[in-house]
Amino acid sequence: MKKVVKFGGSSLASAEQFQKVGNIIRADEDRRYVVPSAPGKRFDGDTKVTDMLYDCYAAAEAGEDFTEKLQNIKARYDAIIEGLKLDYSLDEEFEIIKKNFAEKSGSDYAASRGEYLNGKILAEYLGYDFIDAAEVILFDEDGAFDAEYTNRKMAKRLKKHEHAVIPGFYGAYADGKIKTFSRGGSDITGSIVARALKADLYENWTDVSGFLVTDPHLIRNPQVVDVITYRELRELAYMGAAVLHDEAIFPVRKAGIPINIRNTNRPEDPGTMIVATTSQKSRWTITGIAGKKGFAAVTIDKDLMNAEVGFCRKVLTVFEDNGISIEHMPSGIDTMCVFVDQEVLQEKEQLVLSGIQRAVEPDTLEVQADIALIAVVGRGMRQTRGTAGRIFSALAHANVNCRMIDQGSSELNIIIGVKNDDFEKAVQAIYDIFITTQL
Ligand code: ASP
Predict the structure, then answer these.
(1) Is residue 37 within 6 Å of ligand 1 at its C-beta?
(2) What pTM value is reported for the model?
(3) Which residue CA neighbors atom 1 of ligand 1 most closely?
(4) What's the 184 CA to ligand 1 centre distance in angstroms?
(5) Which of 17, 47, 48 best tests ligand 1's pocket when mutated (most atoms within 8 Å of CB)?
(6) Is the Cβ atom of 38 under 6 angstroms away from ligand 1?
(7) What domains lie within the chain, and their CATH numbers?
(8) Is any atom of ligand 1 closer than 6 Å to the C-beta of 206?
(9) 9 lines ligand 1 (CB under 6 A)
(10) What is the pLDDT of residue 305?
(11) Over the chain, what HEC string results?
């Protein structure tokens, strides 16, 4: 078996955390390719090294003295090296970084040093080879990640190494200039390495024991999902559930490689498996609940709307022309309702309303704000009768009024619109009916 293991920032924030990571890697000889993040927070209120680097580079770019800021970053790494009792020094690396900062080599270069240096230390600690991601992850001249070229180049390079550390988060343009992914992008690197290696498993080690049924800010200690499909994860991630970078799914999905989310601080926990498809039923009828506040609904009524060819298109064109993306669009015979992000709409509200007025001359046109959308997602819903009924009776018992219902035709999800103020209560009621009462 071949496994790619990626460790997040909190898993590599201190020497103590490095030791846990070392133990995890040594416990399984299939864990031969390792992708590290930069050192993250050691405690609440601490600063991630990536943020320190952005800050330090901003000072350099403004022509200010950045010596102390850079010293503080070096101190973070030195503490790790000392704690691990390594005979290793980053003095030369920091000389180069200092020179490049002074020459204004770019904030992407600056941020990438977080993973680069952590990768150097980790390779030294494990006795693994170090592969600079700048040599194997390529971006095209428009700044788009070049997936196919990277895949070939990475695959060829990995063949030469039995064991290697490949730092996360960055790659380079053809001319060697460093470019990073968006924040949290080490997850993408891990996925790219797994695809190129044709790995059997991509393990993503973090500080939670897997993907949670719902947001722990809403429900205390929610249950961990044991198996989730890529599609279910996409639906939940879109509604704000976060465990992985959104784009991290694509490389492994192409190659059909499962992802296992694991907890560095509790390696005995099995975590969550993210798979393409599964015959395994979820433990509960639903797999997860996610949601967001802050949507607005534009409702358009017009008699005989259904007979007017092109009515929907004309309305939607107004949103498109104003650069507003549409979230949901439940409709009736003579009524159509468009859900959009409230903040985005507010900037252009009057333009949109007058545009719709002109385009379709509705009988009435209304805007309602402060709506929250909740997605209840589960591959098991299709086989189970009464799921929608259970959701709505739970909401009724909790005294929550449902403003909108939208069930996707794949029956993978049900989207519910409620008042912002009812959001927490609604999530609690749905969680309780499917999970708490089944424990
Ligand atoms: N260190 C980067 C960040 O903080 C990338 C990562 O951790 O994945 O966003």
Answers:
(1) yes
(2) 0.88
(3) 38
(4) 4
(5) 48
(6) yes
(7) 3-275 (3.40.1160.10), 288-438 (3.30.2130.10)
(8) no
(9) yes
(10) 86
(11) CCEEEEECHHHHCCHHHHHHHHHHHHCCCCEEEEEECCCCCCCCCCCCHHHHHHHHHHHHHCCCCCHHHHHHHHHHHHHHHHHCCCCCCCHHHHHHHHHHHHCCCCHHHHHHHHHHHHHHHHHHHHCCEECCHHHCCEECCCCCECHHHHHHHHHHHHCCCCCEECCCCEEEECCCCEEECCCCCHHHHHHHHHHHHCCCEEEEEECCCCCECCCCCCCCCCCECCEEEHHHHHHHHHCCCCCCCHHHHHHHHHHCCCEEEEECCCCCCCCEEEECCCCCCCCCCCCEEEEEEEEEEEEEECCCHHHCCCHHHHHHHHHHHCCCCEEECCECCCEEEEEEEHHHHHHHHHHHHHHHHHHHCCCEEEEEEEEEEEEEECHHHHHCCCHHHHHHHHHHHCCCCCCEEEECCCCCEEEEEEEHHHHHHHHHHHHHHHCHHHC
For the chain, 439 residues long, the average pLDDT of each consecutive 10-residue run is 97 98 97 98 97 98 97 98 98 98 97 98 98 98 96 98 98 97 97 98 96 92 93 88 89 94 97 90 89 96 89 95 92 91 95 96 96 93 86 95 83 92 96 91
